[in-house]
Amino acid sequence: MIAEAGAGDLIEEHGCIYLYKSERGGEAAARDAAFREKHGVKLERLSAQEVRDLEPHLAPLYRGGIWFKDAYVIASPERLARLLARAIVSRGGQFIAGVACDLRVEGMSAVIRANDKVLSADRVVIAAGAWSRELAAKVGDHVLLDTERGYHVLFPQARELLTRPACYPEHGFYMTPMADGLRAAGTVELGGLEAPANWKRTMMIRKAVKTLVPSAGEGTSEWMGFRPSMPDSLPVIGSSPRTDRVIYAFGHGHLGVTMAGITGQLVSELVTCARTSLDIDPLRSDRTL
Ligand SMILES: Cc1cc2nc3c(=O)[nH]c(=O)nc-3n(C[C@H](O)[C@H](O)[C@H](O)COP(=O)(O)OP(=O)(O)OC[C@H]3O[C@@H](n4cnc5c(N)ncnc54)[C@H](O)[C@@H]3O)c2cc1C
């Protein structure tokens, strides 16, 4: 779909690196690496010198790292979304902007009310991220969806300083070279959908980036985002247990972009009543948690 949408040049394939500073961090990284390798993840262990050769602008605070070779970056998720949307419209799809505030099943149809519009369809897909809980409740499904809030700071002058995403797990955020600059984003805050943002978190990210990439310059464009998270870290993908007119696709937590492709495929299979290409029973909305 990326290729069909003409978005291939947004994909940058240089893997990503996890770094560690202490012997203890190295031991934890080695355990993680062994586990991941067992599950087919391609990776390479790096000495401090090898990290330096790959990323000379990182302050040499590391003892070593792990290079995940298959990871790739979408240089601009916004541009990708726009190109995918354009491809959908060119094939006859339609976008109708509005806030869905009611959802009902009437006979053979699912009916959505959004602002002053009423839309009726054979099937409705609820993919409203952290806000999906309320919509699922409209058809009587109670899901334990919450939000893990994360924070972002962009360093516009630092685009060229890293070739691939780098992170120290102990700092809780990634530094990723994107089209607009170096994106430092991450941390986890359990603060719900309503509480104001806590900008101390972005101050902490700014301070840490100064230490980790000393020439990164000043950060701009701060934001807080709502990861839609389930208690067991698995998404909800599948029909409502009450009606196959309503299909759920939310709760992807930290990995919603990573899992977007497979989620889209599964949803298209559900909508067309085809056999799903994965067993999605563990992802049902009424699973025991
Ligand atoms: C700081 C940060 C860094 C991240 N980094 C990564 C990463 O590197 N890789 C990765 O894979 N994932 C990452 N994630 C996670 C990823 O962003 C989420 O998992 C993903 O956005 C979830 O996608 P979604 O479509 O389910 O929800 P969202 O992206 O939240 O989209 C839901 C949409 O539904 C709309 N909506 C809500 N309610 C209604 C309604 N009633 N009517 C109409 N529309 C509605 C919202 O406005 C929103 O546009 C990161 C998240 C954060 C916060």
TrEMBL record:
Residues 10-270 form the FAD dependent oxidoreductase domain. It holds the Pfam family DAO. InterPro entries: FAD-dep_OxRdtase, FAD/NAD-bd_sf. Keywords: Oxidoreductase. PANTHER family: GLYCINE OXIDASE, SARCOSINE DEHYDROGENASE-RELATED. This is Glycine/D-amino acid oxidase-like deaminating enzyme.
